[in-house]
Design goal:
Layout (H helix, E strand, L loop, with lengths): L18 H5 L2 H4 L4 E7 L2 E6 H17 L7 E5 L5 H11 L3 E4 L6 H11 L3 E4 L13 E3 H6 L16 E7 L7 E6 L2 H4 L1 H8 L6 E4 L6 H13 L3 E5 L8 H7 L4 E4 L1 H10 L10 E4 L6 H11 L2 E8 L3 E5 L13 E2 L5 E4 L11 E7 L8 E4 L2 E4 L4 E10 L5 E6 L4 E3 L2 E3 L1 H8 L7 E10 L2 E9 L4 H11 L8 E4 L13 H11 L1
Amino acid sequence: MLSLTDPAPVAPCPAPFNLARHVLAAAEARPDHVALQIVGPAGAERWSYGRLSAAVRGVATGLAARGLKPGDRVLLRLGNGVAFPLGFLGAVAGGFVPVPTAAGLTAGEVARLCEVIRPSLIVAGAGVALPEAPPCPVLPEGVLRGFEGLAEAGWAMGDPDRLGYIVLTSGTSGSPRAVAHAHRAVWARRMMRDGWLGLGPDDRLMHAGALNWTYTLGAGLFDPWVAGATAIILADGVSADQIPLLARRFDATILAAVPGIYRRILERNPKLSLPRLRHGLSAGEKLPPAIRQRWREATGTDLHEAMGLSECSTFLSSSPARPAPEGATGHAQPGRRIAVLGAGGAPVPRGEPGILAVHRSDPGLCLGIFEGETIRPVTGDWFQTGDMVVMAEDGAITSLGRADDMLNAGGFRVSPAEIEAAMAACPGVTASAAVELPVKDDVSVIALFYTGAAEEDALAAHAGAHLARYKQPRLYLRRAAIPVTANGKVNRRSLREEWKATR
């Protein structure tokens, strides 16, 4: 059997359509229900659906009064406060195109993004970096907040395939790319509700990520709001150590984070009392099986992993209705047509590794890459994600890591995630990253950067007992911490560069 799914067609996105209207539709049915809480040790800021919808439409009015035209880009330079969803959805509601950015970008980085995005307006919070010579007007966050009380704009309805928003991703090259998404992208997220989230209108979903990240934007805001549930976001400055207390205090029923956050929580809390928590969600990088098992032991609940990318969000996952087999990521979400492709671009037999791909017919797939005033469209029948995976006979998919992160050991291709999962069970290892390092001309070896008290002899013995010889690290390098990206993913590139610089 081939590594391919052939699901029944999904319901098409209705037309005309507006992403913001769809996301905030619960304002009509339950206007007084809490839509958003931004929480920290000092308390919470609460927004009802009715208040949030009215404020979003007021922002749309204020942005239009600034002279914006349909399709104009609005660059968001905002932190984890209510101004972010107001600016994002206010722009979408008015027919403009929001472009969220990480608050920590430098002035030079923002200037380079502006050359690609060509924004008509920048909305900026206090203290965030801006280009020395902004290419367009800058609207302070305080002025944006003043738009909340303006007359409510009508929803800018239109073709669901038109450009709705742009997100920035490093992709596999490390150079930022502007991914253009249609309004219909939010409609496609309906396949995640049962296929991953297990989310209902009475849930309170707490997300530990930054709002500018697509994982947080989608699973942390859009999905709870479409379900009529409550989204809980961490205020700027909240640390991972504070999450358990806040989750308990604010009655979180679902927690979403990256594996690194769960690891940090478990390091300090071998047992957790979260009486209302039903399960956790994990995405952003591979979830080590050891972390999933430790979470089960600490909370009595499961972690459900999802795989996706900025170009299509998540499309395969574990879920409360269908938990992933041990060691696997999960199954294709209902309605998703995915495949595992070989070197020739055709699906490989089940059980053989290959590149994970999403069919171009997926309603959540991006329009393409935004370049100046044009969009370079997705071409071909399959969009290849760059993730190495293997599909079992029952359709369960196991991640082998990014194709560009794969290690070459004596001619064998080895997944760093496989090595890290094995070494995570070694006593005295608290975190690790497997990286291929050059030791001389044309010779490289697998190295394990790790944190913890384990000694090299113990590490080597553990690797010998749990990994084939060609998969075993040849170098063990203890570090005070494993570097991560802004989104919490292991930064293998940083470790490689550090190694080269100290040679």
